[in-house]
Design a protein that fits this description.
The complex is a heterodimer. By secondary structure, chain A is of the alpha/beta class. Chain A has helices at 42-49, 69-72, 90-100, 105-118, 134-146, 164-179, 191-197, 215-222, 236-243, 267-277, 291-319; strands spanning 4-13, 16-26, 31-35, 57-62, 65-66, 75-78, 152-156, 183-187, 200-205, 208-214, 226-233, 247-252, 256-261, 278-287. Chain A has a 6-stranded mixed beta sheet with strand order 6-7-8-3-9-10. Chain A is globular. The termini of chain A are far apart. Chain B contains 17 helices and 6 strands. Chain B has helices at residues 2-18, 21-50, 85-94, 126-146, 151-158, 179-213, 215-219, 225-256, 258-265, 279-285, 295-322, 326-345, 347-352, 357-364, 370-379, 384-412, 422-428, and strands at residues 54-60, 76-81, 99-103, 115-118, 167-169, 172-174. Chain B has a 4-stranded mixed beta sheet, with helices on one face. Chain B has a two-stranded antiparallel sheet with strand order 5-6. The chains are: A alpha/beta, B alpha/beta.
Chain lengths: 320, 432
């Protein structure tokens, strides 16, 4: 089976440690969400998987073989910053990409027709790219990524700039490919999409993995520590609770709040406090934290720890 | 596999460009522009040589020189006049005559010089040269007459002196001047200069476009950067080769039919030839010999163009990968451009002395060699060891340039943001 294995990979640019001893796996028939703040090392990791750059140490295997020009042919990569040749016709361009992936011309022709048809883009075959709208170009790019039926798909923000209808169209195709047993790596900053699509999560920050595993397990680990409350009336209870340090308010609007329970605060305490000020409660639910919360918590925790360590070692250095 | 992908890239680059209007345009229009360019130069220099027909009024104080002034080529006509100087000046200023010549009586004794008045002043044109020699001859004859010299002496003095240049080579000697060889060599050298620059910057532009378009990241997830670089350089090189072959056939044709071409610009009557004069006769009359160029000249022309292009295009591609805008490339291009500029600066020196140490050195040094060597090959028999050495140095440098450029390229195409310094670029080369 075609499992992607990243094993102890490190990549350094000059003095910057872009990726530090990173290991994770992506399974066929599943979607791995590769997450992390800007500059965390996601792009570097992806470039090593796609054999654009080579790790300093560690190895990357796909289907038990080290990635190579050969594995490039069974990969499809949709970079975040995308582009097409402006003056080339859509059909010629797709044919060029297909040929570079080692596809025979006849197969390529057939696939181009099939996918353009599915994207509702068959009329564009002989149009130059710069005549197309941004959304159309996005779809052409997506077709270029999946044209050669890759076993490994790496999609960096595939929905960026698409309207909901086209986003749904793309999502259908992605899920279809997942069901067909393709290995998919999905990089995104849109946590709702991650939550909706991903089976596994790999969260990197400052070149290191902070969270890794199946999405559901991760959520369980964090436990049901979040209260979702919908109410009518005054929200003064939120301030009272925050002041004594028993909760943190993640989001708050006039009639809704998402509250994180700190240090084992029981949910009952929130309910009691709420009853004192609000006129009515329409929803009170104890849930696992949303992906967005996990992301923020994990990243700030790691960065806080690193800052502490840095202070510590600086202090030690000062003593000597 | 490797060659295959390089080939796919090269094919795409080639077809993409050959199909454009720009390509058809420049291929067909290139020679027309070239011919027009050289025609204008030829025309200007021809008219400087011919000087047109000039009518000159002569105010003769000596009373005997004016009537004996005559131009053996018949281009200048002299009319003796006794109008006052004021009205002569007015006629010159009105443009009725080209100018007037004043011959003071003391001109025969040499105490005073002749004076020529025109709206153009003097200068270094061949007209001044002709006029001076006509006056000198007339004055000399007058001086000799004053001394009662025998008529035989006049004949001796007036007998023409010719100078024929003969080119020596191993195969023997060739009649006529080497002007033809110099012109063809100069054109070839200049063509190589132009095309290296033009195709080199086409490659660079392509690299920059691919980078700023962000297509490059998709491409190199399918192709190694080295293959992409070589595919690009070779594809555009193939396009250049098509253009250059077309043009060199034109040059070859041009040298064969040069007589006919020359006769378009030079009136056969002015050469004292019948209208039915053959090509060879026309060329002979203007002192221009059809250069008898062997096919090896054209073969080396193409080889030097190719190697020179490959070397510079590869370096240009490396530079292009490091920047995001054409302007940013300028300062990085200077070190690469210098040798090309040096070789074009010394083009004239090479044409004048193709066997000099300077010419030899320039045609051996890899970065400058293509232009001077082609000029030399067109003009003289360059020893084989020199061609061999020059070609191997050039080819070796090309291989080195590929290594350097591909290491810069693979990092450069993925680097965005600040324009890198030369120091940073050198650092890139050391990355794994």
């Amino acid at each position: 089976m075609h499992t992607l294995k990243v094993q102890g990979v490190t990549k350094r640019y000059d003095k910057v440690l872009a990726v530090n001893d990173v290991s994770f796996e992506a399974q066929p028939g599943r979607i791995l969400g590769l997450l992390g703040p800007n500059g965390a090392g996601k792009t570097t990791t992806i470039r090593m998987i796609t054999y654009i750059t080579i790790p300093d140490t560690g190895q990357i295997l796909f289907g038990d073989q080290r990635v190579s020009p050969k594995s490039q042919e069974i990969m499809g990569y949709l970079p975040e910053e995308r582009g097409l040749y402006k003056k080339m016709k859509v059909g010629e361009q797709l044919m060029y990409f297909a040929e570079l992936k080692g596809m025979p011309k006849r197969d390529a022709k057939e696939k181009i027709r099939y996918w353009l048809d599915r994207m509702g883009a068959l009329d564009w075959v002989s149009k130059e790219t710069n005549e197309l709208s941004k959304g159309m170009q996005q779809k052409i790019q997506f077709v270029a990524t999946i044209l050669h039926d890759p076993k490994l798909l790496i999609l960096d923000e595939p929905f960026g700039g698409l309207d909901p209808i086209n986003a749904d169209l793309l999502q259908d195709v992605i899920l279809e490919l997942k069901d067909a047993g393709r290995t998919i790596v999905f990089a995104s900053h849109r946590m709702e999409q991650v939550e909706q699509l991903c089976d596994d999560i790999c969260l990197v920050s400052r070149g290191e993995i902070v969270v890794n595993g199946p999405l559901n397990d991760i959520k369980h680990q964090f436990g049901k520590n979040t209260v979702m409350i919908d109410f009518e009336g005054s929200d003064d209870f939120l301030d009272t609770l925050t002041e004594d340090g028993s909760v943190r308010v993640n989001t708050r609007s006039s009639r809704h709040a998402e509250i994180r329970l700190l240090d084992g605060t029981p949910s009952k305490k929130v309910l009691k406090a709420a009853l004192d000020t609000v006129s009515d409660i329409t929803r009170f639910e104890l849930v696992e934290p949303p992906m967005r919360e996990i992301f923020v918590t994990a990243v700030t925790e790691q960065q806080g720890r690193q800052a502490l360590e840095a202070d510590h070692s600086a202090a030690q250095g000062g003593q000597k | 596999m490797t060659r295959n992908k390089t080939f796919i890239v090269a094919k795409n680059e080639f077809l993409k460009r050959v199909k454009t209007r720009w390509f058809v345009f420049t291929t067909l229009l290139g020679p027309i522009v070239m011919v027009a360019f050289f025609t204008i130069i030829g025309f200007v220099s021809a008219s400087a040589i011919e000087g047109g027909d000039q009518s000159i009024l002569v105010l003769d104080e000596t009373g005997r020189l004016g009537s004996s002034l005559s131009d053996p080529d018949g281009k200048l006509s002299f009319d003796v006049t006794d109008l006052p100087e004021d009205s002569l000046r007015a006629r010159v200023l009105r443009g009725e005559v080209n100018g007037y010549l004043f011959l003071p009586s003391a001109v025969i004794s040499g105490d005073q010089s002749a004076k020529y008045y025109s709206t153009e002043g003097g200068g270094v044109s061949s007209f001044n040269f002709d006029l001076r020699s006509i006056i000198r001859n007339t004055v000399r004859i007058a001086r000799l007459e004053d001394q009662d010299v025998a008529p035989e002496v006049f004949e001796i003095i007036n007998a023409g002196v010719g100078l024929d240049s003969i080119k020596l080579s191993d195969e023997g000697e060739e009649q006529g001047s080497s002007a033809g060889y110099a012109i063809v060599g100069g054109i070839m050298g200049f063509l190589i200069y132009l095309t290296m620059l033009i195709y080199g910057s086409v490659v660079m532009q392509g690299v920059i476009q691919e980078k700023t378009n962000r297509v490059v990241e998709i491409i190199i997830s399918s192709v190694r950067p080295f293959e992409l670089l070589m595919g690009k350089v070779l594809g555009i090189g193939a396009m250049g080769l098509v253009q250059m072959s077309f043009w060199s056939i034109l040059i070859a044709g041009g040298t064969i039919f040069s007589g006919t071409i020359v006769s378009f610009f030079v009136d056969s009557a002015s050469l004292n030839l019948p209208d039915t004069a053959s090509q060879a006769e026309v060329l002979d009359a203007v002192g221009f010999n059809v250069p008898d160029l062997g096919p090896e000249v054209f073969i080396f022309f193409v080889i030097y163009f190719l190697l020179g292009y490959l070397l510079f295009a590869t370096l240009f591609a490396g530079i292009g990968s490091a920047v995001e805008q054409q302007q940013d490339a300028q300062s990085l291009m200077i070190p690469v451009m210098m040798p090309i500029i040096v070789s074009i600066i010394f083009l004239q020196a090479v044409i004048e002395a193709p066997n000099s140490t300077l010419s030899l050195a320039l045609s051996l040094i890899p970065f400058t060699s293509p232009i001077p060597m082609v000029v030399r090959i067109a003009m003289i028999d360059v020893p084989w060891w020199q061609i061999g050495l020059s070609l191997s140095l050039l080819a070796g440098t090309f291989v080195g340039a590929v290594w350097v450029s591909s290491r810069i390229y693979r990092v450069g195409i993925l680097s965005y943001g600040k324009k890198p310094s030369l120091k940073e670029i050198i650092k890139w080369m050391r990355y794994a």
